Amino acid sequence: MLDSAKTQPRAGQTGVVLRETNAESELVRAALAIATDSLLNELGPEGHWTGELSSSALSTATAVIALSCASRYPDLVKRGLQWLADHANTDGGWGDTVLSKTNISTTALCWAAFGAAQADADFPGVVSSAAAWLEKTTGGPGAALLAAAIERRYGKDRTFSVPILMTLALSGRLGPNGWSYVIPLPFELAALPHQLFGALQLPVVSYALPALIAIGQVIHYHAPSSNSLVRSIRNLAGKRTLQVLTAIQPPNGGFLEATPLTSFVTMSLAAMGLREHLVVQRGVDFLKNSIRADGSWPIDTNLSTWATTLSIKALAHQSVWAPPETRMILREWLLAQQYRVEHPFTHAAPGGWAWTNLPGGVPDADDTAGTLIALSNLGVIDAETRLAGINAIQWLCQLQNRDGGIPTFCRGWGALPFDRSSPDLTAHALRAWSGWLPQLPDELVRRVERAIYRALRFLSRTQNADGSWLPLWFGNEHAPEDANFTYGTTHVLVALRELEERGFHIPRDMTRKAAAWLVDAQDGSGGWSGFAGGPPSVEETALAVEALAGYRADAANAGARWLVQKIEDGSWRTPSPIGFYFAKLWYYERLYPQIFTVAALGKLAALRPESVEVA
Known about the structure:
By secondary structure, the protein is mainly α. The chain contains 23 helices and seven strands. The protein has helices at residues 22-41, 57-69, 74-86, 104-116, 124-138, 143-154, 158-170, 196-199, 208-222, 228-248, 259-270, 278-290, 304-315, 324-336, 365-377, 383-399, 423-436, 442-462, 485-501, 508-521, 538-548, 553-569, 592-606; strands spanning 5-6, 15-19, 55-56, 297-298, 579-580, 586-587, 610-614. Helix 4 runs parallel beside helix 7 (158-170) and helix 13 runs parallel beside helix 23 (592-606).
C-alpha cells in the first residue's frame, strides 16, 4: 500500500532518501479525503465543532449521590443507577469510561452511589460484586484498607483522594467512624483575599476553591477539629466562605462544567442540611440539565473550543478545506470566546481562552496556545485578530513559570497539577509564540524570544535519557504509572521542528533522540500506543505519524499504512481513553481519532514525494 522504495545511503550521509510511488500517494490522499469529509461533517451549524465526551461511570456515580443527598429527582437517580448496573465490567468493578479498565476510585464511587441512594436491595448482585472487587484489590474487607488504598493511588495530591473519601463517608460505606478517614481541608483560607493566595503559595483556581470550601465545610460539620482554636476559626469562617462559593459559581451551576466537581460541592452542602442553599439549587439544575438520554453523565459538558482549534490545526495541512466565509465564521467564533476582562471566578488576567464556550470554562495555557495557532491557520490576521493575538501572547508570557515551563492555569511552585510546568503545554506555547512573532510589536518580540529560549531550556532539562517527554493531562491506562510518552514526545517534536523552520537554533540531539524514541516505540503492525509494547490506538498512531512525517519517513509511512487500514475497515472512528482529566480520571473524545487522522494524513499528503529521513 504505502511501501517505500528506499535507496541506500552513501558513505558519510546522515540519512536516506525515501520515494513514494504515485499509487502510495493516492492511497494516502484517498484516505485523507474520507477523513476530511468526516471531520467537516462534524462542523456544527453554529460555526464550530462541539464533539462528544464519553459517558463516565465516575460522573454518573457522583451525580447520583449528589441528587440523593439533595433529595431531588429520584427518577434521575434511578436512571443513573440502572446505567451503572448495565455498564459494570465483568470483574464487578467500573472504569471511568465504558472502554476503561476497572479502577479503585470509580468502583468505590459507584459502590457508594448505590449506598447513598439506599438501593443495595434493588441491585444486590451489582453491589456485592463491587464490594468483592474492592476487597480483593485492597487486600481484605474494612474501611481502613479501602481508605489507605485510595490515598496510595493519589499520593500527596489530595484534590481527588479527599473528595472520594468524603463521598464514601457520607454514603455510609466507611462505617460509623467513616469521617475519621477523611483528612480535614483548611476551607477557612478561602475567606482571605484572593491576592494572598500567591503570597502563601496556594495556587487556587476554579477547580480547587469550590472543592476546598464545600468539602472542607462538610468535613468540619461531621468531624470538627479537636483543636479548639482551629474549630473556632472554622466556625467563624463558615458563612464568609459560603458567600465566596456562591459568588464563584457559574450562572448555570456547573463548576468548571464538570459533573464530578459540581456533584462533590452539591452533595457536601446537602449533607450539611443546606439543601435549599442557592449553590445546591444551581448544582442540582446543572445535573438535571446535563444528564444524557441513556441515564449517564459525561465528565464535562463539552470541549467545544478545544475541538474547534484542534480541527482547524488538523485541516491546515490542506491548502483548500473550506471557503473564505466558513473560515471567517470560525475566526469570529473563536475571537468571541476570548476572555477580555479578568475572569470573574478565578481572577485570571484577560487574554486567554478556555476549552469551552460555556460559563464554567476557565482560561488555560493549552487552549490559549491552540486558539492562537488556529487563528493564524485561518489565514486572516486583521486588526481585531492581531489585537486578540497580542493580548493572548502576553497572557502566555505572564503564565510562564520560573523554570521556563508552562503550567495549565496559573504560575506556581509545582505543588499541584494546576501550576506544574509540563512539556506538552510548553511545546504548545512555543508553537504559538514562534508562529505569531511576525505579528508582534518589536518590544513584545524581544520578550517572546526570551520566553522561547527559557522554554527550550526547560524542555532540554525535562527530556528523558531515552529521548522522550512525559505529558501532564494525557495518559495511557495500559502503561506503567498510566504514562503516555508518545503524546508528550510527539507534541514536543512537532514544536521543535517548527522552531527550526522559523530560524531558531535547536540542539540536533534533542530532536534526534526524540525521533529515535518514537521509531523504537512503534509496534510491529505500524501503529503506536502510549508506550513501547502497548496496544496501538488511532489517536497515538496519528500523532506519531504527524510528528515523524518528512523526518523519519519509513516509520511515518508504516504508521500511515496502519491508519489507512483502519479507515478501510471502518474502525478508525473508534476512540480510545487517552484523555486524562485531573487526578487519574479518564475520558475519551469522539472527535479525537478523526481530528488526529486528518492531521497525520494531511501532513503526509502535503509533503513532496521525496523526503529525507534523518538517521
